[in-house]
Write a structure and sequence with these properties.
It comes from Parnassius mnemosyne (clouded apollo). This protein is mainly alpha-helical and about 140 residues long. The chain contains 4 helices and 2 strands; from the N terminus they run αββααα. The chain has helices at about 1-25, 60-75, 95-110, 130-139; strands at about 35-40, 50-55. The longest helix has 22 residues, at about 1-25.
Length: about 140
């Protein structure tokens, strides 16, 4: 619906988004989200094997993308992110991170230095959090 009505609604949507950014207020109706559980693996008998998917209003997603785009541009233009930061950056990924690590280890080895690599798996980290405490801290 948004795409179809865009020729008429674009100025209105733009004004709402700009006002939201200017006032730093996220419109309350856009905060309402449906949570749908999606199975992580075939064993659907255990609740831990589901991950929540948020179904948010379209306009909230548009605002989030505008803010994300502006923030990324600001961080890139001002060289705030380190070159080795690979997550959530265009042109960087796991391959880039792996190449940086491999290059650093190889360069140190060539200099006669040793390297220690510690890897952490945060796959189920959120499952370990006490959600009551987290909610209390967020409110």
């Amino acid at each position: 619906m948004v795409r179809i009505s865009l020729p008429v609604t674009l100025p209105i949507i733009t004004e709402i988004i700009n006002e939201s950014i200017h006032t730093k207020i996220f419109p309350d109706p856009w905060k309402l989200t449906k949570i749908k559980p999606i199975p992580k693996n075939p064993n659907v008998q255990e609740i831990n094997n589901f991950r929540p998917i948020s179904i948010s209003p379209t306009l909230s997603k548009i605002l989030e993308r505008v803010v994300c785009s502006q923030l990324k541009r600001y961080l890139e233009d001002n060289h705030i992110l380190p070159e080795t930061q690979s997550g959530f950056r265009r042109g960087y990924g796991t391959e880039t991170a792996l190449l940086h690590v491999t290059d650093d280890i190889t360069a140190d080895y060539d200099k006669g230095k040793s390297s220690i690599l510690v890897l952490l798996d945060f796959t189920r980290a959120f499952d370990c959090i006490n959600h009551d405490i987290l909610l209390a801290k967020l409110l």
